[in-house]
Every structure is written in structure tokens, then in C-alpha cells.
């Protein structure tokens, strides 16, 4: 069952279109990613769905409610972690939870949330004195205190170091395991690949694909990419040698660096050909396609650029 339905949602600022009639739906219980580069319109889209911004056109329904017109009713059932959530520096962890709980008719017991998110010994610690990871867990607890059916997490891991990001991913998996639908806004491919059941790829205000991460990767016409350096830059041209192999889709060269993409028994075919032609190479690396490759295939540019 769809818990969120977005149909032809349009939004612009000062005559400039930011969302160009986007449509997607989110099923109950899934982790749904909205993925795109900075400025693609992700926050605008999600804030229209949360009822925080008024769409110019189209319809949005969350749990059957219109977020803008039925905001107060809807907010009883959603949990939101905004991109730039802040709390007063001196508020204690328990006070923040108690305050947020007071906004809802049937909140969860925040004492249990403190336990669950490993903050029990920090209940009297002021917000400013919490570590980055503890603040992150407190924000998640705050997003869950209203006992939501859907929670929105916007750039949850921006600014965190790799270890803290991975720890946060585990938290998202825990939210999902509790049966809460998660809408995750991110510009990190690896995060979406790890966490999302389905992803909407947003680029310049348009949705260019909605699929599972594996489905998006399958859509890329090549499976592997090999890079290597030529030890003799004046030797035979690798494009001529490799370009005719059935397994090879493309060959590009910049100086002594060669990038070859292909599918099937690609690595064997390429290395056998190089050996046969006595082409010596170094720094050889083979990568399997990732969501980033799918994004490049869909939009013509990298998300990480
Ligand atoms: N309130 C506003 N008034 C005017 N322009 C805005 C407003 N909010 C966003 N924009 C513009 O709309 C575009 C999309 O912004 P939005 O924050 O939705 O993108 P985003 O994909 O979430 O980007 P980021 O990852 O950088 O947050 C940007 O060009 C931004 O400058």
C-alpha cells in the first residue's frame, strides 16, 4: 500500500522552476531514497511532502492526507529530521524529548527511547555537550517520539566521518526494522545503495528514474570498469587492440591512463589480449558498477563531482 503519493508536484521560486511536475509513491515499510546532487530540489520536494512548503501545482497525499491543508492532523503521524535541525545549547537530552513528546497526542515513552538509542546515561547532558553521534541519535529519537508511521531523514550523515556515517546507517536499519517507513534524502550513493529499497533519482528538478539500487545498476549497459596505466605510452593504441573485443563496450585514454568498460568475461578477455599483444600495464584495477555509474548513465554526470 502506498503511504505517500506524489503526482505532478511542481514548485518554483521567483519564476525559477525547482520541481518540474515530479511523481512518485512510497510503499508502507520501505526505505525510500530521494537522491540527487546539491540544488536538485530534494529538500524542496520532501518539505512539500511534509507540509512545510506549499506546492505550486500537483497533488501530494501522505497517509491519505493533504500535507499542506491537513498539516496539524498529518504531523501527528510523521517524524521529521530536518536538514539543519538545531536545539538550544543548554537543553538537556531528556528535556528535548519531553518537549517534543508534548507536541503529540499519543507519544512514545521517551525514557524507553533514551534506552533504545543508547542515551540513557546522557539524559541530563546538555545538547551542546553531546558528541556528534549522540546528537545524531537524539535527533532520531526526537523524530520517533511521536510514534510516527513515516519518518523523513534529510541528509542525516552530512558532515559525519566515515565511521559515524556507518554507525548512523545501522540506526536507519533499526528504524526500518520497527516497521516505520523511512524517506531518506541523500546525496551519497553508497548510503542509498546500502539502505534504500527504492530510490528516486532527482536531477535538475526532474525525476529521471525510480527503481531499486540493484535495478538502477542493472540499467547501466556495462557491468565492469577496468583502469590501468600503460608502461610504454608509445606502444600500440589500446583502443585499437581492445575496441573490437565482444566483451568491451568502450575504451578511453588520457595520457597513459586507460579506462575500459565491459560485461561478461571481460577481465579475462582484456588481460589475455594485452598479454598476447605484449602490452605491459601497471596499477590495474577492476571495479564492479555502482549506483554512481547508474547516476552518470542517467544524468550524464557524477553525483560526487
Ligand atoms: N526558500 C527558497 N527561496 C528561493 N530559492 C530557494 C528556496 N529554497 C530552495 N531554493 C532554491 O531551489 C533549488 C533547490 O534547492 P533544494 O534545497 O530543494 O535542493 P537540494 O537538492 O535539497 O539541495 P541540497 O542538497 O544542497 O540541500 C536551489 O537552487 C535553491 O537555491
UniProtKB/TrEMBL annotation:
Q: Which InterPro entries match?
A: AAA+_ATPase, ABC_transporter-like_ATP-bd, ABC_transporter-like_CS, ABC_transporter_ATP-binding, P-loop_NTPase
- Membrane topology field: Peripheral membrane protein
Record has ATP-binding as a keyword? yes
Entry annotated with the keyword Oxidoreductase? no
Every ABC transporter domain range:
4-229
Q: Which domain of life is it from?
A: Bacteria
Q: Name one GO molecular function term.
A: ATP binding
Any idea which UniProt keywords this protein has? Antibiotic resistance, ATP-binding, Nucleotide-binding, Transport
Record localization:
Cell membrane
Q: Which CDD domains match?
A: ABC_DR_subfamily_A
Instruction: Spell out the PROSITE patterns in the cross-references.
Output: ABC_TRANSPORTER_1, ABC_TRANSPORTER_2
One Pfam family per UniProt: ABC_tran
Tell me the protein's name: ABC-2 type transport system ATP-binding protein
Specify the species. Nocardiopsis terrae
Amino acid at each position: 500500500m502506498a503511504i505517500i503519493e506524489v503526482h505532478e508536484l511542481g514548485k518554483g521560486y521567483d519564476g525559477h522552476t525547482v520541481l518540474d511536475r515530479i511523481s512518485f509513491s512510497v510503499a508502507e515499510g520501505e526505505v525510500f531514497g530521494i537522491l540527487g546532487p546539491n540544488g536538485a530540489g530534494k529538500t524542496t520536494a520532501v518539505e512539500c511532502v511534509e507540509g512545510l512548503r506549499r506546492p505550486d501545482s500537483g497533488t501530494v497525499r501522505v497517509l491519505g492526507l493533504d500535507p499542506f491543508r491537513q498539516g496539524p492532523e498529518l504531523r501527528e503521524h510523521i517524524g521529521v529530521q530536518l536538514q539543519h535541525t538545531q536545539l538550544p545549547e543548554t537543553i538537556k537530552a531528556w528535556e528535548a524529548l519531553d518537549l517534543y513528546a508534548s507536541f503529540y497526542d499519543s507519544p512514545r515513552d521517551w525514557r524507553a527511547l533514551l534506552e533504545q538509542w543508547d542515551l540513557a546515561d546522557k539524559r541530563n547532558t546538555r545538547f551542546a555537550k553531546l558528541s556528534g553521534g549522540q546528537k545524531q541519535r537524539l535527533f532520531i529519537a526526537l523524530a520517533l517520539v511521536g510514534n510516527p508511521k513515516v519518518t523523513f531523514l534529510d541528509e542525516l550523515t552530512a558532515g559525519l566521518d566515515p565511521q559515524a556515517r556507518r554507525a548512523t546507517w545501522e540506526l536507519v536499519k533499526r528504524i526500518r526494522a520497527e516497521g516505520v517507513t523511512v524517506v531518506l534524502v541523500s546525496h551519497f550513493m553508497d548510503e542509498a545503495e546500502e539502505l534504500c529499497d527504492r530510490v528516486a533519482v532527482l536531477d535538475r528538478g526532474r525525476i529521471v528514474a525510480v527503481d531499486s539500487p540493484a535495478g538502477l545498476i542493472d540499467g547501466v549497459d556495462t557491468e565492469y570498469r577496468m583502469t590501468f596505466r600503460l608502461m610504454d605510452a608509445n606502444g600500440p593504441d589500446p583502443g585499437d587492440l581492445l575496441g573490437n573485443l565482444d566483451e568491451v563496450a568502450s575504451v578511453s585514454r588520457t595520457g597513459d591512463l586507460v579506462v575500459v568498460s565491459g560485461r561478461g568475461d571481460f577481465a579475462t578477455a582484456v588481460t589475455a589480449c594485452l598479454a598476447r599483444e605484449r602490452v605491459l600495464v601497471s596499477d590495474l584495477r577492476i571495479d564492479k558498477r555502482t549506483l554512481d555509474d547508474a547516476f552518470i548513465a542517467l544524468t550524464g554526470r557524477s553525483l560526487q563531482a
